[in-house]
Amino acid sequence: MIKTIGHSTHPIERFVDLLKKGGVGLLVDVRSTPFSRRHPQFGKERLARSLEAAGIAYAWEGMALGGKDGGKGANYTEAAARPAFHDALARVIARSTETTVCLMCAEKEPLDCHRTVLVSRRLAERGAAIEHLLADGGTRPHTAVEDALLAKNGGGADLFEDRAQLLARAYDARERAMKGGSA
User: CA–CA separation, 94 vs 121, rounded Å?
Assistant: First the structure.
């Protein structure tokens, strides 16, 4: 199983508790820059130590799965086409056969984050089961997140496009909105 979570503004104890309740065995950090000035408990080294003390493994995949492209101007479709991205997805999927993997970024809401709009989207296209861990302790299946995305983008019914085409358009619109463009 693959899950996702945003560290948001949680105290580290609450964050670790959410992971434990979710049955997470490995946290995969997908932040391009694995630190937070405002929330230093989520810096790469401190976070790894806190997770280790709780019996949760840590891996950083932000170079391949991060949402920032280092100023190259790439969109998420271009980023997802890179061999390093494909290789990292394969590693995540392989690890998920051994333990519950959870992708982590900073944003609280799944649809406000590249962990969903870039990474989970491509994992779902490969048939991976994904569940989002929410700040209130609840969970949401990825299909429900996609349904919400479709609703935000004008609904999911169309005589000429199937769900995959509608989702592709909705994901592209969400990416533009997240990056400050028009939705």
Answer: 17
Fold of 2-141: Cobalt-precorrin-4 Transmethylase; domain 1 (3.40.1010)
Tokens at 71, concatenated: 């100023």
Tens-digit pLDDT profile for the chain (183 aa)?
A: 999 999 999 999 999 999 999 999 999 999 999 998 899 999 999 999 999 999 999 999 999 999 887 656 679 999 999 999 999 999 999 999 999 999 999 999 999 999 999 999 999 999 999 999 999 999 999 999 999 999 998 775 666 888 999 999 999 999 999 988 654
Query: Where exactly are the structural domains of the chain?
Result: 2-141
Sign for the pseudo-dihedral over CA of 163, 167, 169, 173: positive
